[in-house]
Amino acid sequence: MRLKIESMAYGPDAVAHADDGRAVFVTGAVPGDVVEAEVVREEKRLVKARVTAVLEPSPDRVEPRCPWASVCGGCPWAAMDYAAQLAAKRDNVVQSLSRIGHLGAERAEALVAPVLAPGASWGYRNKVELAVERRRGRAVVGMHAQGDSGVVKVDRCLLLDADHEGLVKAVSGSLSYLANSHNLNVERVGIRASRRTGDVEVALWTEPSPFPRAQAAKILGDATGASSIVRVMTKGPLKARKLAGTERLDGNGWWQERILDETMRVSAPSFFQVNTLGAEQLVQLVLEALEPGADDAAMDLYSGAGTFTLPLARRASWVDAVESYGPAVGNLRHNLERAGIDNADAVGGDAGREFPDEGADIVVVDPPRAGLAPDVVEKLSTLDARAIAYVSCDPATLARDLDRFEEAGRFSPVWVKPVDLFAQTFHVECVTLLRPRS
Predict the structure, then answer these.
(1) 393 is catalytic
(2) Which of 72, 75, 393, 430 is catalytic?
(3) β-pairing, 228-235 with 200-206?
(4) Cα end-to-end span (Å), the chain
(5) Quick check: helix, strand or coil at residue 99?
(6) What are phi and psi of 86, to 5 degrees?
(7) Cys-Cys with 410: which of 240, 381, 389, 416 at CB 3.0–4.6 Å?
(8) Residue 273 assigned as binding residue
(9) In whole angstroms, what is the distance from residue 229 CA to residue 220 CA?
(10) PANTHER family annotated for this entry (predicted)?
(11) Under-70 pLDDT residues of the chain
């Protein structure tokens, strides 16, 4: 097919239209390109294709900095100029609010600010994950290939902080060596590295089975100088794995990062934003939205290890923090105690079931990609709060939830500010301010 590329989807692919009007999702293209593309899959309403030749390159096409960008799934937008990436991300947010959130094109355009870029577009990550597969009897450690078609062996990741990009080669080499003499059953490997604290953690995600603990700790420790090496054990179906336990193989057993004025301890199973500068931008936007005062009662739902809980507690009279993931609750309690904060309560459990009874003047919610459960939107909509800050990592579920808030009739969005925590990818974080209707 010969195609003129029109825009980027919320995903790795670009979008064009075939002669019969069907949308064509094209891997490897940039808006403005004229390409020759090979059909990968045809459906009634759409076509999947991949670029075989760029006939006329877009003005926004650039040479990717990463030599593996065309085969690795980690930076699918790397061939697009960064300013064009930011514009495409804003457009995706606007389209989601307009179509899924039923806000209409004009209102969505007015709500969504330009995308904020908190730092460099390469070398910004404090964490990467490596994939592991067996190939002809040997372990291959690297990055997920485009389209999840196996593992690409790489010797560094240019998205990881430049001071630590060599950790990828060190870890993959160590595991490949270990796997020659041991059945490791490693499913994936998390590497966390902080330029600010100097902490490096290697987390091996495995099944709960026999494991060469001492050898793994020795070889990985010598290769990486890690301050923490841990094993995270999970069990159950592949798409619904549950935590079965963690083991400290060497070092602290946890990783630390500094966010603005706070030092956060995070254990390997717990979520933490992969972009430290981006996380600071999110905190600043939440504080800007909520304007916490000394007499305010605050609520932090899906609080994690306390990224928003701690700065809110420094400014408000009280914070009720709710988090469902056990390891993160433990991290939150430690971080509050270490910071000397005694005006916050860390509650473990589902946000709907453990919804605080006391109400709140200000609220922040930072749910996972699935967004807010319907009962949480209902309960938030009964509050006599003056502001809600909604931190979202998925424009589609954000739009759906804003539609639910609109239907409930209590809160409406005032502004949506996207933040680019994930340069070279389609992902974008948003902070939305909701206030009571006049």
Answers:
(1) yes
(2) 393
(3) parallel
(4) 53
(5) helix
(6) -60, -40
(7) 381
(8) yes
(9) 8
(10) RNA M5U METHYLTRANSFERASE, TRNA (URACIL(54)-C(5))-METHYLTRANSFERASE
(11) none
* Domains defined for the chain, CATH in brackets: 1-61 (2.40.50.140), 127-257 (2.40.50.1070), 270-436 (3.40.50.150)
Per-residue pLDDT, 10: 95
The per-residue b/e assignment along 380-409, b for 16 or more CB within 10 angstroms, e otherwise, is: bbebebebbbbbbbbbbbbbbbbbbbbeee
pLDDT at 345: 96
Cβ atoms of residues 98 and 104 within 8 Å: yes
Give the tokens for residue 107.
Answer: 């209102």
Ligand-binding site membership of 302 (annotated): yes
Nearest CA among 199, 200, 196, 135 for reference residue 167: 200
Identity of the residue numbered 10? Y
Is 366 a known ligand-binding residue?
Answer: yes
The residues, any chain, with a CB within 8 Å of residue 239's CB and separated by 6 or more, are none
Strand partners, 418: 430
pLDDT score, position 169: 94
Q: H-helix or E-strand containing 50?
A: strand 46-56
Q: Please tell me the predicted confidence (pLDDT) of residue 181.
A: 78
